[in-house]
Structure formats: structure tokens, C-alpha cells
Amino acid sequence: MVTRRGRDSGAAAVEFALILPIVLLVIFGIIDFGRMLNAQITLTEAAREAARATALIDAAAGQARFDRVAESTVGDLTPTIIACPATPDADDDAVVDVTYTFTFVTPLSILIGGDGTTDLAGHGVMPCIH
Question: How far apart are CA 102 and CA 95, in angstroms?
Fold first, then answer.
């Protein structure tokens, strides 16, 4: 019996070379998208928690609460805090805004024409109740 092994010897290597870039793009996308989504959720949660503490107590408490929530994931950031007035009206709100420059760890953004970073923003609003 004669086998045809000689003619198919490089087929697996060619198929691997064709599929590898696609697989790497998917893996890089999953890694960076997951990290970016985690950072965005943390920013939004930190801004909301800071707005709540600002509405209930004061701007210093809002800053402290923001630092506790955000520092583990995104690091040291300075939010913009608009505190409640001393005698708030029914339509006054405590507002916290923060921006963060997210840096990709994979070369995915460079491949699609970016510089390796993107800006994320968190926004929190709570009504003044004191």
C-alpha cells in the first residue's frame, strides 16, 4: 500500500500560518476589552459613590470615597467634584466627573490605527438631601 504523505507534509503549517493572526486578534481583543470594561465600570462606580458621599456629607468625604473605590483598579485620579450648597434646593445635585487615559497592553490598538490609549470617563450625580 502506498501512502500520499509526501504531498501533504506542509499543509498543517500553512493552515496554522493563515489562522494564527486571526486567533491572536481575537485574544488581544478579549484581553484589552475586558480590562477596558473593568476600568470603565470602576470609574462609573467611583464617581457614583463619590457623588453619594458628597451629597450626604461633603466634598472631602466624596474625595475620600472616590479614592477608596478607584485606587485598586485605575490608580490615583483627581475627580471634579461639585458639592451641594449649604442650603440646597430641591433641584440641586452633587456631581462628580472623572477622566482616565486607558493604556492598552496588547498591540491591538496600534494595528487598528490608534496610539495605544483611549480616554474613559465616569460621571456620578446624586440629589442634595442635607
Answer: 23
CA distance 100 to 113: 20
Asked if 38 and 105 count as a contact pair (C-beta separation under 8 A), the reply is no
Tell me whether residue 103 is exposed, middle or buried, using C-beta atoms within 10 angstroms of its C-beta: 0 to 12, 13 to 18, 19 or more: middle
Amino acid, res. 16: F
pTM for the complete prediction? 0.80
Closest CA to 121 of 103, 105, 101: 101
Identify the weakest region by mean pLDDT among 6-15, 24-33, 78-87.
Answer: 6-15
Task: Quickly list DSSP for 13-52.
Answer: HHHHHHHHHHHHHHHHHHHHHHHHHHHHHHHHHHHHHHHH
How far is CA 50 from its chain centroid?
Answer: 18
Domain ranges of the chain: 10-127
pLDDT digits (tens, 9 = 90+) for 57-104: 888 999 999 988 888 777 778 899 999 998 888 889 999 999 999 989
Fold of 10-127: Pantoate--beta-alanine Ligase; Chain: A,domain 2 (3.30.1300)
